Amino acid sequence: MGGMNKHNGAYYWCKRCLGHFEREQTFLRHQQHCTTNDVSTTIMTMPPEGMTLKFKSVTNQQDMPFVVFADFECIVERIDRQSSAHPHIYQQHRPISVGWKLVSLLDDFPQEPYMEVSGDHVVHQFLLHMQQLQERLMKELTRNERLKMTDEDVHQYNIASVCHISQRHLDADKVRDHEH
């Protein structure tokens, strides 16, 4: 679970809810609430009265041109604890099939059929398919093509004074694809 962000220190992990904390003190305070028998309790820290929260990660609200939805099916197998290097582990999941569907928001990209693989080495086969798919999609994404705008698009662009995504005032950095 490492490499989650730029934090270089240790994380404290709650084994009950899989929450992670950078400070031991915060983790210990969390454990007091998380280990109670009432699992329906939600702990929320609200901002001070009158404070305004602002969304800053504008790039995270952009639609992705491609999304892959995938699902693995597994068989749970018991592990012999005596011969295991980790005696607390008593079972493992063995993948037996995987199915996936590529969904594209691009009008001119052909729809892909639902795909599935079963049998031995399904993870390896799935990753090979994903690698081939990545190569195809990168060719599509790096295709240099002039932006197509309708007359209405041009009109809206010309009268815009505020970015419709970041809500920032547009100055000399006014562009058609938002990366200003």
Brief sketch in words of this structure:
The protein has 180 residues and is α+β, with helices and mostly antiparallel strands. The protein contains 3 helices and 5 strands, in the order ββαβββαα.
Give the N-to-C terminal Cα separation.
34 Å
Share of residues in strands: 15-25%
Mean pLDDT: 82
Radius of gyration: 24 Å
Helix residue percentage: 10-25%
User: What strand line-up does the widest sheet have?
Assistant: 3-4-5
Helix/strand-derived class?
A: alpha+beta
Shape: flat
Please provide the ordered H/E string of secondary-structure elements: EEHEEEHH
Number of strand segments: 5
- Number of contiguous helices: 3
Largest sheet: 3 strands, antiparallel
* Uncertain segments: none
Folded structure, characterized:
This protein is an alpha+beta fold and 180 residues long. Among the domains are: 1-45, no CATH class; 63-141, no CATH class. It is built from three helices and five strands. Strands 3-4-5 form a three-stranded antiparallel beta sheet, with helices on one face. Strands 1-2 form a two-stranded antiparallel ribbon. β1 and β2 (20-21) form a beta hairpin. The relative contact order is 0.08.
Topology:
Layout: E1 12-13, E2 20-21, H1 24-34, E3 66-78, E4 91-104, E5 115-118, H2 122-141, H3 151-159
Antiparallel strand pairs: 1-2, 3-4, 4-5
